[in-house]
Every structure is written in structure tokens, then in C-alpha cells.
């Protein structure tokens, strides 16, 4: 059995989030491809997949731009006949203060002519759970988890109902845990009640993967779902039960020979730990100083020379502690500081590719977007998982590149070494 059209169309608000979602769908048995932006006509002509994930860079853009880009992606997916749409955002529910998550969700609902959707960023495998509408990261409320210090999208309120309501004109409600724990029928009954109350978006509690499977099954008939990749756990089985999905084996990606590098731009707690682990192991690293960049110093050239002359794989990073990030932002401005670092890391990635680097481990959603765009990647094949939420991927460029694109908050402390080993796959 083969599909003539994709079943699930996905819109992700950043590049690592798209990869995270694609990883989840592949694990569920869906042939999945990830497109960097809306596919060109040439790329689209060769697509054959059960699920298509369009990666946008819309998390931190002006809300009006995020809405326009998301609607354009929706139009493209609808034209390919996708039966259900999934809007993917981070499991820490972060976006700009203007509210990209709520505004984009509202716009997608309107375009689809639907009156209701769920909002559920829970990802228990990575410690993100929701109880009575409050988002926890491990054992801490979101607002006490380190995310309150995020340089671009600080999250100071763990009450997702309140956060989402501030971003949309639709009434926001709560699909509480007592309904979720009651199973599929209880969830469907509660959704009907919420709809009758005029609720257009409902934050859904979820404490375990079993809860996410329940939610996914109960929402098989919704035109739009929104959330983190965890909510997609139950979606493949919906299509499988309907006889629309054939099983396939996730094979290892082809090996890619060449040089390798780690690039880190995220200031998250997890990435700070990963950078620290690299430095503690005595491995070579070059730190990008945003103030030196702003002063016009040849940071990109210095980083490229450092990588060229090193005897081992290098880490090139702009990752800093929260107080250091704030000090830089006070001098340069939030947007300027972030944009300069992203542009520099993109230029470094491009220069390294010209020097023979073919394997890239990248930490941070915004950083990954800048790097992938600088490398000219349009389409990614999804391979085996490295850490929860982070698979190995392979570009479909003429000369393939192996990439691990990691959300800043994901991965264990040894992620960089683990990812390099998996991307190499015996190529060294």
C-alpha cells in the first residue's frame, strides 16, 4: 500500500522543534520528511511521505510575520491534501511577549474553519509535564526552571491557560487531568463540554506518555492540533487504525565522511551543561564574544582558523550564563545581540563546509535555523534518535551533510560527544 498524498501536515515554529517532531513521527511508523521552509516546486515534486514537517523560523519573529508564514505553510499543506494539521512549538511553550503561539493557533483555526483545538506542550520523556494547567520542567515550575532567564523568550508564568489567553481572542479553557485519566471517551466528552462553553483552545494536562496517547486518540477528528512533539505520539496509530498507514523500518542513515564540528548558540541550562562537559574534558573550544563581534573584530575568521589548526574536533560556542547574556543585551539590545551571533555562526558553518566539514552538531533552535540556511539545506531525512527529541538527520543536498539539530533545552550532559559518535557512524 502506498500513499498518493501525505496524511499529516506539520508546521513548526523553529528548526530544532521540527526535527524533534519528525523524530517522534518516524518512531511512530510514519515516513516523514522535514522541509526547511516551504518546499520549492522542485523539492515538492519528489516528496513521498506520510507526514511533512515544514520548519519555519517564526518563534521570535514579529507576530504578524509568524502568522503570515504559518498560513502560507498551511495553504501549501492543504494543497497536498493533508488530512490533519499539527502546529508544533516548544515543550517550554515559549514565544515572544506579543504571543506568537496564540496568534498563529487562532489564525490556523480560522483558516481551517474550525472552532476548537488543544494546546499541549507536554513531553514527559524530557521532563515536561502539565498538571492543572501549569507546566513543569522536571520538578520545577516553568517559571523557576531557568526559562525565566531565556534571552529571547523568557517564561515567567507557568500557568499556560493564563499565558495562552493573553495571546488570543478565543476563549481558553483547561482539559484537566481527571478527564485525561478517564480515557478517550472521557476526553471526548469533556471536549464537547468545553466547545459548548465557547472554548476555542484548551490547555491539556498530561503527566505521562499514556496521557499523550489518550489525547492523540481522542483528537483524531480535530482539524488542528497544537503542542510539543509529545502530543504527536498517538497520531500515527490513528491513521494506522483507519488503514491509511503502512509500516516501515527506520534504517540507519548513510555514513558521511569528512570533518566535523559542534556549534552552540543556545544559552539554556542544558546547553550550558553540555558546553561545560566539553571544556571539562579538555577538548578544544572557541568562544564567540558578542561584544567583540559588535566592535568589528574578525571573529568569524579567527574561529575558522582555530578549527583549521586544531588537532581534534572543536566546539565553537556563544553559550553564556544568564547574567552574562543580560549584560551583553543591555549594551547591544536583545535583537541585535542574538542576530549577530546567529549570523556569525551561520558564516562559520558555511566556511567550515568549504573547508571539508560534513558533520554538524548544532545546539539551539535559532542557531540551527541560521546554520541550516547558511548551508543551503532544503530537505532533511530523519534517522535514528540520539537523545529524546533529537534524531540524526541527513541533508538531500548534492553532497550530503549529516546534522544533529538540538533544541537548547534537550540532550544529556554528554550530548555533544554522543551526537558526534552517531553522526560519524564508522565514517572516521
Report a brief summary of the structure.
The chain is an alpha/beta fold.
Describe the structure.
The chain is built from 16 helices and 18 strands. The longest helix is centred in the last third of the chain and has 21 residues. Helix 12 runs parallel beside helix 14 and helix 14 crosses helix 15. The strands form 2 sheets. It has a 15-stranded mixed beta sheet, with helices on both faces. A 3-stranded antiparallel beta sheet has the order 6-7-8, with no helix packed on it. The two termini are 39 Å apart. With 428 residues, the chain is of the alpha/beta class. It folds into 2 domains: 234 residues, Putative sugar-binding, N-terminal domain (Rossmann fold), CATH 3.40.50.10840; 166 residues, 3-Layer(aba) Sandwich (Molybdenum Cofactor Biosythetic Enzyme, Chain A), CATH 3.40.980.20. It is globular, with a radius of gyration of 21 Å.
